Amino acid sequence: MFEFTLTARAGRARTGRFRTPHGDLVTPVFAPVGTQAAVKTLTPAQVADLGATLVLANTYHLYLRPGDELIGEMGGLHEFMQWPGPILTDSGGFQVFSLADSRKIDDDGVTFKSHIDGSTHRFTPEKAIQIQENLGADIIMAFDECSDPNDHAYTKIAMERTHRWAERCLAAKTRPDQALFGIVQGGVNPDLRAQSARFIASLDTPGIAIGGLSVGETKAEMHAMLDVTLPLLPEDKPRYLMGVGTPEDLINGVARGVDIFDCVLPTRLARHHAAFSPEGRLNLMNAVYARDKRPIDETCDCYTCRTFTRAYLRHLIAAKESLAGTLLSIHNLRALIRLMETLRAAIQDGSFESRVPEWLKQWQGNAERKGG
Amino acid sequence: MFEFTLTARAGRARTGRFRTPHGDLVTPVFAPVGTQAAVKTLTPAQVADLGATLVLANTYHLYLRPGDELIGEMGGLHEFMQWPGPILTDSGGFQVFSLADSRKIDDDGVTFKSHIDGSTHRFTPEKAIQIQENLGADIIMAFDECSDPNDHAYTKIAMERTHRWAERCLAAKTRPDQALFGIVQGGVNPDLRAQSARFIASLDTPGIAIGGLSVGETKAEMHAMLDVTLPLLPEDKPRYLMGVGTPEDLINGVARGVDIFDCVLPTRLARHHAAFSPEGRLNLMNAVYARDKRPIDETCDCYTCRTFTRAYLRHLIAAKESLAGTLLSIHNLRALIRLMETLRAAIQDGSFESRVPEWLKQWQGNAERKGG
User: Which of A42, A183, A292, B364 is 20 to 30 A away from residue B15, measured at CA?
Assistant: First the structure.
């Protein structure tokens, strides 16, 4: 179980196949996020139609509601949300540490208040594993502390705690059908990143996650941290860059050797009327689209682009029909999944390295809004 | 065009086939409502998967937003919303007269204020036809006045105006590819209903609508009005009972000879966490469903019932995931469409009349909430 086979390389980029109890993941792969055991506005059938293979769910949210024990009783996440393919859960760390004023960290764990009802809860590495074993995802994460990248002194403390917690998670883990990934931290400090990469790589885990990026640092800093971290990781384990990203981030990440990505951006943008396109990010609420008979992206093969005009999407948004969010989610997710298909094919056929500049140029406008 | 062929009878109930430019309607049929050119929360692909054949859209709403001229420029409603099958538009009368304090009626038409921005507009019979010709539905409605059923004196005035307006609509109509239906009014007064039925039946239209019911009268009054009206209508034209209804209403309507129904109830209930079931109407927000592994209805063949537990649906509702509305809309619409399939099959095989009591008993709890 959890065998990872590299199938092609292009510079530091690579394609591979990661075996999980719920099917093989062809990498590099982008995972839609189903925070609360649902990819927002989409049925699992619609998610599968996008070509998605891996779906992410959030430990913190599901622990609070409906509860990991309830999901366990219902047969686990796959059965509960009816996603037959691989599932990845985060450890809850990122959400808990984002609670800022309503959490207290010590070396043993974190006490925090629920964002739903203010009730008090405590996560430890052992508890994070227990919750994730109840949820039953194929890929689970060690409990980590993601700290402010600009606080260098504290970053070291948080990184060292993350390492101790990774060892405790590994010791606490009991299910053989789940792959635990340790998480590299170290903020934007190259020395700490290198130290963390070596430590996490030394643990006996089937894969490695890179956390604490896309949390406020610059793109140059993110790339520098990837350039430090990835060469220190073993070739024969998949690397997961957590919570990233934009189309440009995916291209830059794959070029540096990342295998797995997830991000809420495509579905979040969809709820804010924005769509990825080769023209740049479109704000479809804009009146310029009222009579625009073109699809969002003429080159896109998604249901939305094959079926609807920008004029119709703009009408749905103006009329506050939630179907707009569904149709834009379909497009934005498919755009990233299709991009990954393109990158994989290019790694396989040897054209990857020469095409990176073209892809970066094609997608560059999608970090910013355009036409709105 | 618009040929109506009866294919079987059972008492006053009948099955038929109504030819339209966008395909044949097998009747009796229930039409999902797409008020703003979208069946709420569902893609046209999902609506088609329910077995829906006819979809309704609202003239008042589409006139205001995005505008009937815009939809006309975009190629008409079928092209705009990408519903390839038959579409029916109402005349806007019901919505305009519902505006109560912000409309003024005279014999020529109605002046009203938009619910969106308060701007002033005017509908006349000719304008209602012009808008519906821009929208381009297969079946369109004469402009009518739907009055308070308890104000008998005024009901007569409104009915007579409705008759004059029906003649004006017929004279104003220019498109041969649209079937105009006149609308029978008369409130809950049997004499007025009979007079209206005779008048509307005398017009040269391919079908007849029955308006002004399900607007506050009792079920007994609705049934009495159908019992007066339907026997006075020609057998060879389809009869459309506007804005009705519940599962019980469909059974009672079909038994009295109605061919076409529409109602927002299934999608509206879905947004309020309620689901039709043989156990009665379920409120899936109820905590009793938190660990319920059953589907909403074990006998239902919809995607939701084939795929998800009540526990999952309850979680989606509690977590405020809009996917809950999508999944309940799928179930509630399929429940009514499947009921119509059952009724049609029974009319065809001769078992209809003997089974009416069983169906009414099976669905009776769905007028009221249960388990919540």
Answer: B364
Read off the pLDDT of each residue in B142-157 and give the average, rounded to a whole number. 90
Contact A319 B70 (CB under 8 A): no
Q: Return the structure tokens found at B242.
A: 């506007």
Give mean pLDDT, residues A357-365. Answer: 92
Give the CATH number, domain containing residue A236: 3.20.20.105
A341 torsion bin: left (phi>0), alpha (psi -120 to 50), beta (else) = alpha
Residues of B with CB under 8 A from a CB of A: 36-38, 40-45, 61, 65-66, 70, 73-74, 80-82, 290-291, 293, 303, 307-309, 311-312, 314-316, 318-319, 321-323, 325-327
pLDDT tens column, B11-64: 999 999 999 999 999 999 999 999 999 999 999 999 999 999 999 999 999 999
Residues 6+ apart with CB under 8 A from A274: A281, A282, A283, A284, A328, A332, A369, A372
Query: Which residues of chain A lie closer than 8 angstroms to B293, CB-CB?
Result: 74
Confidence (pLDDT) at A102: 77
In chain A, residues with a C-beta closer than 8 Å to the C-beta of B82 are 307-308, 312
Contacts of B315 in chain A (CB under 8 A): 36-37, 65-66, 80
Domain that holds residue A279: 270-370
Domain boundary among B246, B262, B278: B262
Instruction: List Cβ neighbours of A301 (8 Å cut-off, separation of 6 or more).
Output: A334, A338
- pTM tops 0.95, yes or no: yes
Predicted pLDDT at A368: 52
Q: Please judge whether A40 and B73 are an interchain contact, meaning their C-beta atoms are less than 8 angstroms apart.
A: no
Convert the pLDDT of each residue in A95-113 to its tens digit. Answer: 888 887 778 999 999 999 9
Sheet holding B103-105, edge to edge: B103-105, B110-113, B120-123
Domain count, chain B: 2
Contacts A325 to B, Cβ<8 Å: 322
Residues in chain A: 372
Which H or E element spans position B322?
A: none
| Interface contact A316-B38, CB threshold 8 A | yes
pLDDT tens digits, one per residue of A309-350:
999 999 999 999 999 999 999 999 999 999 999 999 999 999
- Cβ distance of B44 and A307 shorter than 8 Å: yes
Q: How many CB pairs under 8 A join A and B?
A: 106
Same domain, B254 and B333: no
